[in-house]
Amino acid sequence: MNFVAPSVAQTVPAAGTVPLLTQALPDLPGREVRITLLDRGPGNASPPHHHPGHHTFGYVVEGSYELGINGQPTRMLKAGDVFYEPPGAIHSVSRNASNDKPMKIIVFMV
User: Fold this and answer.
1) How far apart are CA 74 and CA 65, in angstroms?
2) Residue 110 has pLDDT above 80, yes or no
């Protein structure tokens, strides 16, 4: 039987990233809009990362979200809250803060 350590299992998206729309912006050559649904299980987290060249906006649809940007103190967001990440910012913390409830976020990137 193979078991995955909880710390490793939590870095794998539970239900995943669901692309909803990718739309080129013809009046802004080389730019596009991406809208994605992030569906994460309890305790799920991603390692530090960045989105080079993207303005990233998020809307928490369900659950609680722990967010840290550029090493600043983390913020705890809940359903109805929004956030912004400037291009190239380091997304230092991205975690479903609940141990028993899913989290869903709509992400809008330009």
Assistant:
1) 10
2) yes
